[in-house]
Amino acid sequence: MARILPTTLDTAPADTRPLLEGLQKKFGRAPALFATIGHSPATLESLLHTMSALSHGALTAREIELVNLATSELNGCGYCVSAHGALGKMAGLDAETIAAAREARATNTREHAMLRLVARVVRTGGAGTGTELARAREAGLSDAAIIEVLAHVALKAFTNAVALVAQTELDFPKQPDLPSL
Asked: Are the CB atoms for 99 and 109 separated by under 8 Å?
């Protein structure tokens, strides 16, 4: 059971209600994680605005979902892994690509270098990224793309933390467990 219950249109602060309505229009419902964040209208508004702005940046929708999957897996957030598995499918990712991204791997050199950078940043906060940064640049990531990768990692760290602390109940199809190594 959730430790912080999601808001609803009836229980949300007044400033959250239009944001939840917008999410309902976009997704057919307000995902539980966003409804939970909705306890703070300023936080939900900021998150949605930042996500929207970054969707028009240097990274493709596919790359954004790869970053989100790797970050969420490394942070142990099953809710966000499942949500981004579903969103990844909408961005054209197949099951094999989703599983590989969760392990911070990709067959494409650019995507693999990007995911290795993500893995280092999630594990160390950014310390010791010289090799990963050089490989990302060699693979064609611009400085703008690298900064956006870091922004997505930071946003995902926040949403992962909310889902884990709140124990947000899953409202996306559960992603399969990864095979043990």
From this structure: no
Is the same domain home to 31 and 118? Answer: no
Could you read off the pLDDT of 132-162 as tens digits, one per residue?
999 999 999 999 999 999 999 999 999 999 9
Q: What is the DSSP string of 54-77?
A: HTTSSS-HHHHHHHHHHHHHHTT-
What is the C-alpha separation between 92 and 74, in angstroms, rounded? 22
Q: Which of 168, 143, 161 is nearest to 4 (CA)?
A: 168
Kindly state the tokens that stand for 150: 């870091």
Tokens of residue 24, six digits: 């309902």
| Model pTM above 0.85 | yes
User: Per the domain annotation, does 138 fall within a domain?
Assistant: yes
Q: Which domain holds residue 43?
A: 1-56
- For the chain, count helices (H), then strands (E): 9, 0
